[in-house]
């Protein structure tokens, strides 16, 4: 079968094949050379820095690659991740959930993985200002209590995303905001909405081009796979 025939395979099928965690990075690299269509599909799924996945040569880096591939397979609505300049440096984007003061806000996060990943927790920081009791003024998020070696980055970001809807004012980083949340909820919601409107916009500058993930401030739905 020539390259033209391979390129004519249905997108749903190629998506299903290349999202599979059963394909290692070397084989994905070989597949990207088959035809332009496959190369674009692989880049669309695994990001512009796909070549970084092929640098994994230790137990730690192979675990990080597994974490990254797992996130692309199990991605949840409202969040996307990309590698930045190394396997240890990720960036994420979250869209504030509906029915919260953060609704439709675009929040950028930096995730730095330890050289001893996953024995040590990653460092997570919001690059976007967020008015929230569990996020510091500088954007720091405390993940130590949530982290364990078996946890994936996907699961960790699910925990962080859930705090948009369910803050934990009894275990705060910002005590002033936590106190307002508990005593003046209406004022807290108003402040959070004001910050979201002021700071959480799709026009934020980022090291990553998120335009392919966003349309009118909404994360594009992943391609539906055939059963």
Task: Give a description of the structure.
The protein has 227 residues and is of the alpha+beta class. Helices cover 39% and strands 14% of the residues. It contains nine helices and seven strands. It has helices spanning 3-7, 11-18, 25-31, 36-46, 50-53, 59-74, 153-165, 175-183, 185-199; strands at 79-86, 89-95, 106-112, 123-126, 140-141, 214-215, 218-219. It has a five-stranded antiparallel sheet with strand order 1-2-3-4-5, covered by helices on one side. Strands 6-7 form a two-stranded antiparallel ribbon. Mean pLDDT is 80; it is low at 220-227.
Secondary-structure map with pairings?
Layout: H1 3-7, H2 11-18, H3 25-31, H4 36-46, H5 50-53, H6 59-74, E1 79-86, E2 89-95, E3 106-112, E4 123-126, E5 140-141, H7 153-165, H8 175-183, H9 185-199, E6 214-215, E7 218-219
Antiparallel strand pairs: 1-2, 2-3, 3-4, 4-5, 6-7
Mean pLDDT: 80
Strand content: 5-15%
Helical stretch count?
9
Strand order of the largest sheet: 1-2-3-4-5
Distance between termini? 25 Å
Structural class based on helices, strands and sheet pairing: alpha+beta
Order of helices and strands: HHHHHHEEEEEHHHEE
Instruction: Characterize the biggest β-sheet.
Output: 5 strands, antiparallel
Shape: globular
Radius of gyration, whole Å: 19 Å
- Report the helical percentage: 25-40%
Low-confidence stretches: 220-227
Quaternary state reads single chain
